[in-house]
Amino acid sequence: MVASYAHPSLRPFPLPPKLPSPCSHLLSFKTLSSLSPTTPTSASADYNHIIQSLCNNGDLHRALHLLPQERHPTQRTYEALILACARRNAAALGAAVHRRLVEDGFDRDPFLATKLIDMYAHLGALDDARNVFDETPEKTIFVWNALLKALALADVAEEALALLREMGRRGVAMDSFTYSHALKACIASSSHPPLAADRVREIHGHAVRRGFESRVHVGTTLVDCYAKLGLVSYAERVFDEMPERNVVSWTAMIACRAKNERPFDALDLFYQMMVSEPDVSPNSVTMVSALQASAGLAALGQGKIMHAYILRKGLDSILSVFNALIAMYMKCGSLNTALRLFDSMSGRRDVVSWNSIISGYGSLGFGAKAIQVFEEMVESGIKPSSITFVSVLGACSHSGLVEEGKRLFDSMSQVYGLTPRAEHYACMVDLLGRAGRLDEAAEIIKEMRIEPSPKVWGSLLGACRIHGRVELAEMACTHLFELEPTNAGNYVLLADIYAEAKLWEEVGRVKKLLEERSLEKVPGCSWIEVKKKIYSFVSVDELNPQIEQLHALLIQLVMEMKKDGYVPNTKVVLYDLDHEEKERILLGHSEKLAVAFGLINSGKGEVIRITKNLRLCEDCHSVTKFISRFASREILVRDVNRFHHFKDGVCSCRDYW
DNA sequence: TTAGGGTTAG
């Protein structure tokens, strides 16, 4: 079944019956007024009960008003007050409750200490949380875990690990909660992945020895930690060995694959869960991850099946699911469906919804439209986030809107009070570099107040590739080879630049470096979804059952093109081979095979949608433009950077990409 | 008393 945005289940759900106003079932306003602190109180009034009820109903002020009336507040009363202060982000009131609690002699109570630590952590007052911990004489495991969690989730995860070591020294018996917090601290503690991985492995080993690995929460946290470190096979091993799995464990594993360039395997796992686990029902988070996998594959058919499922289960009322649907349609190139969904959600759009539309327009090459949507977003009262600027600056870059991009970049700090991060500088380098203003791009890097990230140098290198700047490319590579020595893509780009300048000796030198470091170029791969099945192609794909048919079609098309003046762009082939051999390699590029497959196997009027894991090659770009005219077919190719929409012999990028 | 998974970009 195929879902459309107009599915009847999309009609708004009936509103729940109107709730009674807070506390109306407890006390009338008149009764409350009579209980004000200035009024003599009745000895029989149960203030503890009333205060707790007021707190639970969100009426913190009235609860605090009553507190002085109660001579003997109980532990439960203080718990309710602390939780209410945390919920309302009421720092000053929280501190006042804490003072009163101390006066009442509850400062040695480990239960309330746990609640206070949670409250202070929630309010961002870590020193206060630490003080409560220090001043609690009887430190139960709850107290230790509360501080561990507070430190792990704040930007002081190193301190969390120090606390863990202290627990070890003092012989505190850790429980499964301790392990979950400690693992999260490992991820938060280090921006250096190898160090974080060592730490996770160490705690993992510890958990295994103590028998905590079999706990479902610990196993799930381990899956997630390895996922965040990009160690997919470690995550899979933990997941496979879990004695008990629930929907969260399955979702963590699906998300792990979806986020680590394994969208096909993520979908596979999703369907495995649906088929083999009748007791596990996907929830909103599962569907968000599954949609992300469909988006990663640009598998529109799969995405539509999920949309139908989401509607049937009513999960589209959840904003994150709705946003994930918009993103999925955008990444599958279905701009109109994404826009219809976006239009249908007026009033409940958040910054994520807007960002999806801005980046969607950007990647399709509608830069001016992306800027217009950005302005509408600001007008509607939503504050742009750091990601909004990555999206809108990226949109400027794809469309060559240099001056607009510069203006937006300046507004980021001057108007919106956001400090540009490395990724924003990378956008600016890309914007200027693509437009051929490489010296300005290099100047921006020089003036950066923060350390340029690999993305920044990578953007410069990419621009050097487009504009054939050998020396500047070498300079960028001295940084890149140091910062990310194992990223084969940088070596390949440099070799590409040398090859284009016909510096074959230098090409050989870079290839030798790749060999010495045992690095392999990521092979180009393209795929296409036909009748809800995904077919993938690699270069010179001799194992493909239809390869002869595909070749015959491509040879025929190229012959027609040559009559039209087409000259194969053999400079994109990195090897110093003769022209004929280069042409043969060019013809076997995965994206050409996928286009030919689409022509043969899809319906006549259907748009051919192809996805490629790398940047689209220039020769394939020319050939696809021709095919779109010659075969009268719309062809949409999503490469690693953006969309190319081919129609009537023209590409939406207007050859600027 | 406490814990685990997710949406936007690059």
From TrEMBL:
Family statement drawn from the similarity comment of this UniProt entry: Belongs to the PPR family. PCMP-H subfamily.
Domain DYW: 565-657
Pfam family, one: DYW_deaminase
InterPro entries according to UniProt: DYW_dom, E_motif, PPR_At4g14850-like_plant, PPR_rpt, TPR-like_helical_dom_sf
Ranges: PPR repeats: 140-174, 215-249, 350-384
Keywords: Repeat, Transit peptide
GO molecular function, one term: RNA binding
Biological process terms in GO annotation: gene expression; RNA modification
Protein's UniProt name: Pentatricopeptide repeat-containing protein At3g46790, chloroplastic
